[in-house]
Amino acid sequence: MDFQEISPNCKKLRKKIIIEYTSYVDINELAVMELTRQGKKNMTTISFINMKGGVGKTTSAVEIATILAKEHKKKVLLIDLDPQTNATLSLITLEAWEKIKDTATIADVLGMNRGMSSRDDEFDIKDAIIKDVGGIKNLDLIPSHLELTFLDLDLVSVPARESVLKNQISKSDLSYEFILIDCPPNLTLAPQNALIISDYIIVPVIPEIFPAIGLPLLVNRIRKWKKSFAECNVDFLGMVFTKVDGRYSIHAQQMDALRKKNVIHCFSTIIPQNADISKAVANSKPATIAYPNCAGVESYKNLVKEIIRKIGA
């Protein structure tokens, strides 16, 4: 059997490719495929999750995605996996979502309701991507859909249903530096699809008694679930304290207590309670765009720097 050693003329392709030589081999195509594979390996995927809602999870995902794209010039894909669609409506208007909700959302990517004319087995994940969403260069979005509420029911008989999103991404030629995923406040099928492909988890936490109580449960359940999937290498990047109000002594006390418990890493940056962030969401814009100089945005910018340092991106 004849072999040919190929060294493609590309700086990013460091290792040589050994291939079986046949008349059917397209060397350029193989080089592109290898570059795509290497590019996916270099993507960092982060899921934002907490089993309690209203903790700033969606806001954190949206602002961090925006800052990575706008300030750090990173190519970012934000996937909205929460059926409440809050991340989606933080970046596009309700009218814009109404126009695409039945043809190109994460519901299509995950293969929900394949009997509908707009959804079939051959749906390409790229068809659901909104490029440069909201006019933000380098930031793309896969919008959510209310139907995700029924994802577990619709995919009940699908083999390896926890890996549907992984399979869609694997067979595509997506090339991003970051994929950020806004998960719903539970550990059902949607977040399981996210965790399978994630490198890291960020847990937003309001430093109050009730939100903090569920943190050890969340951490233990994810670590236990992870053992069932050999291909899952996700780890906790850390928790970020959100909606912190300096007027409340309970916030300072709970932050100190959680740091001492050391359940997972605590980011040093805290996100203050900030009215401008809420106002921005109402206008379908990230606060980073609508109110770039507000205290909340400055804190998120510092958090992004902390994240980049921690993962070495």
CATH superfamily: P-loop containing nucleotide triphosphate hydrolases
Separation, N- and C-terminal Cα atoms: 42 Å
Quaternary structure annotation: single chain
N-to-C SSE string, H for helix and E for strand: EEHEHEHHHEHHEHEHHEHHHH
CATH class placement? Alpha Beta
- How would you classify the helix and strand content by structural class? alpha/beta
The amount of helix comes to: 25-40%
- Beta content comes to 5-15%
Q: Overview of this structure, please?
A:
Helix content is 39%, strand content 13%. The chain is α/β, with parallel strands linked by helices and 313 residues long. It has one domain (19-311): Rossmann fold (3-Layer(aba) Sandwich), CATH 3.40.50. The strands form two sheets. It has a six-stranded parallel β-sheet, with helices on both faces. Strands 1-2 form a two-stranded antiparallel ribbon. The longest helix has 17 residues, at 295-311. It is globular. The termini are far apart. The relative contact order is 0.16. Residues 1-25, 28-39 and 115-120 have low confidence and may be disordered.
How would the blueprint of this fold be written?
Blueprint: E1 3-6, E2 17-20, H1 27-41, E3 44-48, H2 57-70, E4 76-80, H3 86-89, H4 94-100, H5 106-109, E5 139-142, H6 151-154, H7 164-170, E6 178-182, H8 189-197, E7 200-205, H9 209-213, H10 215-226, E8 235-241, H11 249-261, H12 275-282, H13 287-290, H14 295-311
Helix pairs in contact: 2-14
